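Q: Joint fold for the lines below.
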Amino acid sequence: MPRNAVGREIPEEIQGKPLRPFQGAFATVPEGRKASPPLKTIRPGEDKVLPSLEEAIRRVGLSDGMTISFHHSFRNGDLLVLKVVEACARIGIKDLRLFPTALFPCHEPLIPYIEEGVVTRIEGSMNGPVGAFVSQGGKLREPAVLRSHGGRWRAIECGEVHIDVAFIAAPTADPYGNANGMWGPNACGPISFSVADSWYADKVVVVTDNLVPYPAIPAEIEQGYVDYVVTVDRVGDPGGIATGTLRITRSPTQLRIAKLAADAVIAAGLVREGMGFQAGAGGISLAATDFIAQEMRRRKVRAAFAIGGVTRFLTDMLQEGLVGAILDGQAFDAQSVEFLREHPRHQIITPGFYADYNSRGCATYMLDFAFLGGTEVDLEFNVNVNTHSDGQLLHGIGGHQDVASGAKVTIITIPTIRGRIPTIRDSVTTVTTPGEVVDLVVTERGIAVNPRRPDLREDLKRAGLPVRTLEEMRAEAERLVGKGKRPVFGDEIVALIQWRDGTVIDVVRKVVGWE
Amino acid sequence: MELKREASCGSDERSDAWVSVRPADAISVHIASKTGPMYEDRIREVVEGTLRTLGVTGAEVEVREQGAYDHVIRARLLCALKRASENGEAFRRPAPIRVAREGTPKGRLRRSRLYVPGNNARVLAFVDVFGPDCVILDLEDSVPPAEKDAAQFLVREVLSAMDFGDTEVWVRINPLTRGGREDLEVVLLGRPHGICLPKAESPVEVAELAGILYELEGRYGIPWLVWIMPIIESPKGVLAAPEIAKASERVACLAFGAEDYTAEVGCERSWEALLWARSGIAAAAAAAGVQASDTVFPDAEDEEGLYEEAKRAKALGFDGKGAIHPLQIEPIHRAFAPTPDELSWAKGVVAAAEEAERKGLGVVSYEGRMVDRPVVLRAKRILEMARAMRMEVGDAA
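A: Joint structure:
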């Protein structure tokens, strides 16, 4: 089997569909033209509002084997995916391909529908139980496909994934289909994940629990793309947006990692007027951002912009004047949703603006530095964010690949031991992000610098920071916890991990035993 | 060894293990591991190996663990077996040495001493990474009475299994009248560098501790002198500090504990209210030629407050300060760093001393003033500290 540029065996095709192996972060030169959705028209006075999801499903002609898409802006509070799949099951539709941006633990009730054949394929991130279920193998008709935020946009845009019907949960919508996530009793922040879906899908259904008189503004989703509007009792639970990680960590180990990561950024001279950064919502990332904010105050410098997952930590920085603008693709708490409504420098962006490989500009390319996490890293600086060391597929890619590709300095923050499992491996279980776009790995035991960045190594050494090799840190951790057994993988491929350009960077295989 | 009853030890906290043992005709081991099959065989080896070493032939062992390291599982098992056999003596045999450790110089750098609760496996899991000058594994205030034995075993196993690198490792035992001797019999098997004696009030206790250490060093084959750090935390202690500091050659450092002191005196925890005690301890330490380490700063969030207090302690003559959170280490080290003026003075004095030695002069003078030996030593100490902090020192010795 041929190996790709990170040494992973990638089959040439799966079920007759050819796979392109990953060849390097920026190796692909796109060809051809964008996909085109069908032309449509409407006459004045036509009514788009339908009384139920079932009715909408019938009207759009949803049938066996089709692809339906969703956004995950409600994260673990999503209600729509299950409502639609249940309605399809009642009507007797089967063999659906699910194309959500992401699934969460709240989607565990999908599992019986997968077992019954209502859903037979999934392309999208799977956080938690659905991922664990798919990992068992033999559950889906084709391997699942995981893409980054930018990668999903690209896949729709170039026609790699054709959406038959896009269902868009809208906290506010008007009868003509204009919709946004900023207003309404269940506001969730941006719903811009669905913008490409609305542009390219054959049919578009906006689902809302807050139907307002025309026009619903701002129109994140525009009337010209929307076929039908359906009202439901409740479109989603904004309580599920906050993931429980949204506080600065108190763990001494995590704080140490955060401090080292911030010190590295400072040593690299990146805390300066006009900088741009990405702030994650994990405990380490928030703490590191807080240390950076302290340094900004000391130096009296201001960031030009920050990209989220947006939390109140970022909106507080905007309010304080430490950040000039927030580019917001996804809300991670209630305060950031509120802020979106009130602050002109807090703007919604689409995944296309953020991260599309086949575009003439990504916001991530403007980043000076970014803190990212991972489940494992390896001696080549490759990062795994999808699987655990036991081979279970439990997380999506999110913006990891997009941000790592773009930021001038990409920093992976990761403890060397999680639970008892050492995170620095000879070779990661799954390559999500290749070492060529990772600059620093920061653990509680020190900072490893990618040999591609001797300049950073110099900066860090000069600042007296503990520069270590991944090998040294791995040895220390393994001396404490031992190596542990590794899973043995069979031939069956349960998921493909795409690089953001559409090539395959790795595959996830079914675990068949333990060594 | 025979088990008399059912007993258990440990918790379901992260990085900890709960182990129960009960008498049985043969050995059986049930394991529920958070990491699934990844470490199950290894855990079984740890359990069976420990039972074999102790000559236990009949026991039903249940292990429920949350990512605990081998040494934590062993500690929990040992304590459960001790409780079940009601035979503490059987556990006072040298454990196999797993990490290389050497003795430390009496006058080494001790800017920071980080307290870590001795029965908290979650916190102890990463205790080796924070880089204080001294880490103090605590058996006293942070451990409830019913868990003292559990903490003894856990601290002993942590000491045996973890490599603390350049950090000196200490154990704070309970007062000798309240279980301190038993603490020593267990934890010295882990070969710490030193013992902190809490609530020290008289030279007699220190001498008694020194005697026990002498005895146990021999019995357990510890090839170095285990240091003593008496913690002065009462007015009586402050008054006896000069004698306490001189009570044994093993006393390397006097530490101040302000919490109990303020309670007993009925004073505020303000700089002024504690000034007499601090000055007394610093002077007593200096008179005995040992170090002094200031009390902890209780607010882990207030980095500036900590830094200021540490600077003032340094100005009073203290060599270091206690820490209750790893994030306090850096500000403490910063506060105790030599200033540029101190550094250039120290370089000059040391250079003058070397010059005098080369020329065979008995008297050292620097900038026209005679310099005594203690002054040279102080200058050398400043340079040593600067080097430890990776400051530019140049070629001066």
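Q: Anything notable?
A: Chain A has two domains: 48-123+161-240, 252-488. Chain A has a mean pLDDT of 96.
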